[in-house]
Amino acid sequence: MNIYIQGTGCVSPQATATEGPFPAAVIPWQGARLKNWDPDYKQWIDVKLIRRMGRVIKMGVASAKLSLQEAGIEKPEAIITGTAYGCLDDTGVFLTKMINQQEELLTPTAFIQSTHNTVAGQIALMLGCHGYNNTFVHKGFSFENALLDSIMILREGRTGSILAGAMDELTDHSFKILSRFDLYKKEPVTQDSLLRSNTHGTVAGEGAASFVLGTEKGAHTKAKLSGLTTLYRPAGKAEIMADIEAFLAAHSCNREEISLIITGRNGDVAGDEWYEHVENNLLPEIPVACFKHLCGEYPTASAFAMWMACRILAEQAVPASAMFKGNVKGKQQKILIYNHHKQTHHSLILLSAC
Amino acid sequence: MGSGAWIAGGGVICGIGNNVAECLEAFRRMESGMAQMQHLRSVHRSTFPVAEVKADNKTLAAMAGMPEYISRTALLSRIAAQEAWNSTGLGDISQYRVGFVSANTVGGMDKTEDFFADYLENESNGHLRQVVHHECGAVTELVADAMGIRHHISTISTACSSAANALMYGSRLINNNMVDVVIAGGTDALTRFTLNGFNTLMILDQAACRPFDDTRTGLNLGEGAGYVVLISEALAAELPATHPAWCRLSGYANANDAYHQTASSPDGIGNFLAMQGALEMSGLTPADIDYINLHGTGTQNNDIAEGTAIARLFAPAFPPLSSTKSFTGHTLGASGGIEAVFSAMAVKEGIIYPNANFSKQIKELPFSPVVKFSTGNQLQHVMSNSFGFGGNCSSLVFSKI
């Protein structure tokens, strides 16, 4: 059974929250933190609701609505989300008040919105969707687990359309605390210098991307989701190489058929070695695009990569701002996404043109 | 028909016992786990009873074989997951492709809330080791790494129904031949964050909770972890005669109430759809169900929604039903796992669990819960309900082999 991507939506530090082609211009940034480019949420959400909603909820709901719009459907049969951090803003608000007010005189709104399933629940509520609803919260696998759950359910043949998405927000608190773990660049970097900075650390990002998945190819279909796999704590580069080879073989994909690899390079010299190794030794000659100089690093960033790959396949154009190595030529047939989060959570996603 | 997954064993730690045998003994003796908090530090200590696991972190760390400074959520998880594995006849874990699907709602919040107090005073204060395992997924990985599991690891968080969804996802992983075995369930430790959060919703009872009782006024929070070991039918056939499979996971379904972020709809539409879907997958009718382990938190709203949905689906004949949360408290992300183990054990041993503190039938409902422990009943099919915030509703059906 084939799984198709019928619609996509993305809210990110770039001007992605619209239908149509990949944004031509990169929104510049500097420093170690990329902030979301906020669209006008009134397009999708009631003004009264917007005021109470945490940022990640708005981002998630907007990406979901965009993807449904693009797919031309009003209500999916199931909703599955992935988020590593959940609703950090509301969590921080409740935690701060709880501590500062010595557990007295607290109000419920932030607590209610702090649970990890808030976004999936809100989407169900707004759409009146009584179908299957699940939320995965496993670090750098949160999005991949949501996709896998969707694939397994679609293969059972009783569900026609699933909204699958991933979202993570960065807050002032989380950026400060994550910075203390020495994850981010100390020296100034920009979108142009990050990927070749050759030093320790990366830049923090955030975003939400949603996809409408189904089993029937239609007028709205953007791409085919040909394969997905995850690898936890590979022993070394040899293991990921073997895993990629097995993955391509399992999906009957010859290396020559791959038009483009999208790797999760984030400028961290140690982490990027994995990509460099695979690019040079397993898939030489194949052009490479990157995305974390556009959205920053966060545990569900692979959802941004999948959104970008869908755009490339649907538009048959690779944005110059995303190219890292080599030159694309001919039709974009198959795109392999290889991402890892902190060298621990590795994932592969294979997409094909329709 | 059916999910295709079998239950090879289970493990539980909660407010009424540190393992399954101790929990069953507590039910038999009608001893519930609510008491004044001994381990959680909160200004509400004397106000709200809780069902704590009766051990400090040092003791739990020794039981788990893990460092004392890590989150209590992980310590509880390891203890129950290891018991679950040891209860099976599967032997050496490294022989199998193993998945660990562990649900939780708080992650390492018990440590984060200590860290955050220092951090708020000065942003360079607070020990990083207290916040490094904040994420829900970090708790799962601590346990997976300690047990040598890496074929598939995942964490689910859908509030109070989290662990039931872990069983569904685990079952699908087995059906898709991605792994041979999945340890599936959930864990949650008590934290000030959750206690205060539930307090703002004004749904905590200051006395022992009274699920499915007309006088109910709220829930008691609990903590713990519960896991089943899911295997394929083929692997079940290879189990040694000394450790046969407990039962089958014959059906499951997940539906959304789509009514309110925290409250249940008056007619319990999500609950109804979840139970109906689980029956459909198992190929059963309501009359086939011999016992229901209720979600039964003890709040006005939850119990009437669940009860109304049961009345609609099961009328005119109602199977014995009870809420074990009247003993364990509401263990949130762990509850679906703990109650899955109790339900699987119910099928295996013919146990019907009592509902503590019941005195007066809910006037809107045509049934009341069972109040006495009994064993040796002929139970072919047992249903377990888990309903939560975000409208997330899940039902599981366990059946005799």
From TrEMBL, chain B:
Ketosynthase family 3 (KS3) domain sequence ranges: 1-400
One GO term describing the cellular component: cytosol
Gene Ontology molecular functions: 3-oxoacyl-[acyl-carrier-protein] synthase activity
BP GO terms, sorted: fatty acid biosynthetic process
PROSITE patterns noted in UniProt: KS3_2 (PS52004)
Coiled coil: none
Gene3D superfamilies: 3.40.47.10
UniProt KW keywords: Transferase
Family: Belongs to the thiolase-like superfamily. Beta-ketoacyl-ACP synthases family.
PANTHER family cross-referenced by the UniProt entry: BETA-KETOACYL SYNTHASE (PTHR11712:SF320), POLYKETIDE SYNTHASE-RELATED (PTHR11712)
The protein's name: Beta-ketoacyl-[acyl-carrier-protein] synthase family protein
